């Protein structure tokens, strides 16, 4: 500062305004501090780190405390990190704000993970919502099937490396066979067990349509079913049967699963005897009871036959 600067007249008004502004800012800062320090989460943080914190650290890192306080107040849409919530931590002598997935985000991630474990091919959307709770009030016509499914889930989770036979659920249209399979799949997904469900008639049409176009794609589709951890073949017997579909598709899938002892479930409107005599034995190639018997041998090895009857829930 030069001598001429000392000779300049003092602007008292400006000095007063500056002082008032500083006092106003200090008052606002003190008010902000009061709100931040009164926050219950910040109070809990101070208590948890009482042996490490002091006044200098708190004031030095107040900006981080303020960030935590303001971000916590904001809705998910307004937050800097959507789907995440702030948490305080004390790292290397510094108060730090970290962001972790919110409860809603964790729940959504878990739900997505469960859905990814349930691989549904040409299946009705209802199976994504099916739960075992849907079968809490069941009729006597359904009790055996539900009890068997509960037993399978329990036993599989206890010893997943051992072989567990599936079920062959048969009964009238609309009694809940597919719904029960979806509930089983979603329950197993809660324990990170993947399940593949396929509407077999629709799958058969898809294979036929791609028969002359891309054999590699069809092979991958077959392998998906062959190697599925747990497989549900839904509505078997409703497909338009050909010798190729029976022997080179269904037979190949079942043979692989039988040899590797992989849990396999079926739903059908046919009993096992009906499926063999009224469906599998007859194609355009003629009556072939031996080939039908060969398929049924695999189905019987893989599954236990259980009747599921009752009212048609789809017309209610």
Automatic annotation (TrEMBL):
The superkingdom listed in its UniProt entry is Bacteria
Spell out the protein name for this chain.
Primosomal protein DnaI
List the Pfam families: DnaI_N, IstB_IS21
What InterPro entries does the record tag this protein with? Answer: AAA+_ATPase, DnaI_N, IstB_ATP-bd, P-loop_NTPase
Read off the lineage from the record: Bacteria, Bacillati, Bacillota, Bacilli, Lactobacillales
- Please give the Gene Ontology molecular function terms for this protein: ATP binding
Name the SMART domains on file: AAA
| Gene Ontology biological process | DNA replication
Query: Which positions fall inside the AAA+ ATPase domain?
Result: 163-305
Which NCBIfam families did the record assign? PRK08939.1
């Amino acid at each position: 500062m030069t001598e001429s600067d000392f000779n300049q007249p003092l602007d008292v008004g400006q000095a007063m305004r500056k002082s008032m502004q500083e006092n106003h800012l200090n008052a606002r800062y003190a008010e902000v501090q009061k709100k931040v320090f009164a926050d219950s989460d910040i109070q809990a943080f101070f208590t948890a780190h009482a042996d490490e914190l002091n006044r200098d650290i708190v004031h030095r890192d107040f900006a981080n405390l303020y960030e935590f306080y303001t971000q916590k107040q904001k809705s998910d849409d307004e937050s800097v990190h959507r789907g995440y919530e702030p948490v305080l931590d004390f790292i290397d002598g510094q108060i730090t704000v970290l962001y972790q997935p919110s409860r809603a985000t964790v729940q959504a991630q878990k739900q997505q993970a469960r859905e990814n474990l349930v691989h549904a091919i040409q299946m009705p959307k209802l199976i994504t919502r099916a739960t075992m709770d849907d079968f809490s009030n069941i009729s006597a016509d359904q009790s055996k099937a539900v009890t068997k499914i509960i037993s399978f889930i329990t036993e599989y989770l206890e010893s997943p490396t051992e072989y567990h036979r599936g079920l062959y659920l048969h009964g009238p249209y609309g009694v809940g066979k597919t719904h029960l399979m979806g509930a089983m799949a979603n329950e197993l997904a809660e324990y990170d067990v993947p399940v593949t469900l396929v509407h077999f008639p629709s799958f058969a049409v898809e294979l036929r349509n791609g028969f002359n176009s891309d054999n590699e794609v069809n092979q991958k589709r077959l392998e998906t079913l062959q190697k599925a951890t747990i497989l549900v073949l839904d509505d078997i017997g409703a497909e338009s049967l050909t010798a190729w579909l029976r022997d080179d598709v269904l037979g190949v899938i079942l043979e692989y699963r039988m040899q590797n002892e992989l849990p396999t479930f079926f739903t059908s409107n046919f009993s096992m005897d009906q499926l063999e005599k009224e469906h599998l034995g007859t194609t355009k190639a003629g009556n072939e009871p031996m080939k039908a018997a060969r398929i049924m041998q695999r189905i019987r090895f893989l599954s236990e036959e259980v009747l599921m009857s009752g009212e048609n829930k789809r017309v209610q």
